[in-house]
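Researcher: Let's run the pair from yesterday's discussion. Sequence first, then tokens, for each.
Model: Starting with the first of the pair.
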Amino acid sequence: VKSKRIVIKIGTNVLQQSNGKLDHKLIGE
């Protein structure tokens, strides 16, 4: 269960980072 929670946390962090990069790209354009 703990390992699954860690994976979920990592997944959400990756999604947040990717969304931030997309936002920066849109703002840049």
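Model: Moving on to the second of the pair.
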Amino acid sequence: MEDTINNNILEENEKHIIQNEQPQEHDDGASLKNEESTEILEEEPKNLLISLLSELKIGVDLSRVPLPTFILEPRSLLEKFTDYMIHGDILCGICKVATPLERIQIITKWYLSGFYFRPKGVKKPYNPILGEIFRSKWEFNAANKINNNTNNDNHNNSNINSGSGSNDSGTLNTSSQAILVAEQISHHPPVSCVYISNRNDGYTMSGVINPRSKFLGTSMAVIVDGSITLSLLELQEEYVITFPTACARGIIFGTLLTEIVGPATIVCKKTNLTSEMEFKAKSMFRGEYNVVSGKIKLNNETTHNFTGKWDKKIEITQAKKKGSSEILWDCSAVKKNKTIIRPINQQEEFESQKLWQKVTQAILNKNQKDATVEKNKLEDDQRKRVKERKDTVWEPRLFKKIGDQWVYKYANTTLYQQGEPKEIETEGIIYFEGTSIENLKNKVEPCGASENEISIFLEVKVIKCYFIDPYLNLIQ
């Protein structure tokens, strides 16, 4: 497909608003065209942005600043989690990969695949409304799994390409699905919870994300606190994943673009393996955009180095052996998996796409006035609900606080059994087909937390995740 990434986003959002008769899917295209994600603002919006920012102090929190709608990406932050699953088939068969060293390389490859899908310029997703939810799924099978085999020699006996779904017998795991549910559990501070289940391929993910926006004078930064934990159920391995910072450049001078900068890590305590990444900022006069370098470490000793551009190609080499490199990630050689989302006319009132549909439609129509009006309506409604609640503690619908952890109420971390009922999702609840959803609801007791308690939780910065199975057995 020769459309730009930005056009893909706009076209798909337009489908989400207009074409409600069929389940929604992101086009997977035969190939992806990668361009520098830059934009030049017209004079009027540029002056408006400069006028707004000129009144701000350096370091101010932007989460409470009403930013103009022309810098909004037409989707919620909760929907942005899907970027990390458009190549989720990289993780197919991950539990059958022979060694921990190979597994962390494949997980690193999957992680790096989630950055290049982005709009042009500086586009910030909507701040989710308190209680907003998002649901989607992906279906992986032998026909759409990535075959990343190259002509590289397997000189290091570490087959990065194993993550395309092979098992011990060398055959493909024929089918699996990943289901994602996300919920905004706090508005101030903004906190999002996400849970992904693909038990057929032996993994779940759970995380709490707290993005913070800061004004830096000539740029803006979105710092992502929190982490996602990828759990390999059969192996009882947990990989704790953190995220780099997104910086908006050129908001006053030059061309608008978003740079990914700073450190990110993938850590598995059980295997003593880490993947340490550094997303590099381009200097004013030299260098390139979208460069990342990193190290795979075992017991704090480097085994592999990797470097390249996350929107093009990244190569990996052994640290102690000179020789040719292997391709860790090649953006031009992959196809996207379709993100399947219910049609808007089948969504609940507080689902992301339905909730924001009027704002999204106005942005797609380049009608900034209507976009601002509709956005203000949503924010005013939220403030009204807060006043009506008074001192009543907000109770998240899908996630529950246990000790210092936020967990998905209906998580199932038991091992997949051949022939078991298919997992489905209704009302944000992932459960076995044929199971009574009402019985599941009755087994889970509500547990709310005030925004002050959430703030305290974020300061603790614990990273170990706990899960609850449908029968409420706490699994550590």
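Researcher: Give me one sentence on the second I can quote.
Model: The first strand starts at residue 24 and ends at 25.
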